[in-house]
Amino acid sequence: MSRLVYVLNGPNLNLLGKRQPHIYGHVTLADVEAECRELAGELKLDLRFHQSNREYEIIDWIHAAREEAGGIVINPAAFTHTSVAILDALNTFEPPVVEVHISNVHKREAFRHHSYVSLRADGVIAGFGTQGYSLALQRVARLIDEKAA
Ligand code: DQA
């Protein structure tokens, strides 16, 4: 089982830290990537960390992950609530998938309560701020370890 994990981020997350900080906080996506890389080192995972505002790029990364990755952590951002295409792509990927939302989407507008990605995700983390990424990586590492055992 590959110890390479893709961490994928959807639209507007490039503005993390500047965008609606009362909801998403002041931590930037570069900070999140640095934290993920540090933790990945401890968990002996390799990481590919990407963000895009374009749906097709996220789909292409999921296809690339199919070839080499042992897990995916994904914050699909607004595509969570709209994208059958990202769900279909994730359904072609067999290893663990953990969905992350920085905010507690269930405390927010009704349109954020439905996630297409949750139909595939093995676990969902919401409302833990950017710490959710670390929790998701820990979970993926555990699932990889369990499969290898
Ligand atoms: C988000 C929640 C989504 O509803 C929203 O569109 C985002 C970010 C989160 O991380 O809390 O862009 O995925």
Automatic annotation (TrEMBL):
Coiled coil region boundaries: none
The protein's name is: 3-dehydroquinate dehydratase
Specify the pathway.
Metabolic intermediate biosynthesis; chorismate biosynthesis; chorismate from D-erythrose 4-phosphate and phosphoenolpyruvate: step 3/7
The positions annotated for binding substrate are N75, H81, D88, I102, S103, R112
Enzyme Commission designation: 4.2.1.10
Q: Name one GO biological process term.
A: amino acid biosynthetic process
Identify the InterPro entries for this entry.
DHquinase_II, DHquinase_II_CS, DHquinase_II_sf
At the top of the EC hierarchy, this enzyme's class is: lyase
Catalytic residues of the enzyme: Y24, H101
Swiss-Prot/TrEMBL catalytic activity: 3-dehydroquinate = 3-dehydroshikimate + H2O
Q: How does it assemble?
A: Homododecamer.
CDD domains hit by this protein:
DHQase_II
Q: According to its UniProt record, which protein family does this protein belong to?
A: Belongs to the type-II 3-dehydroquinase family.
| Transition state stabilizer (site feature) positions | R19
According to its UniProt entry, this protein's organism is Bosea psychrotolerans
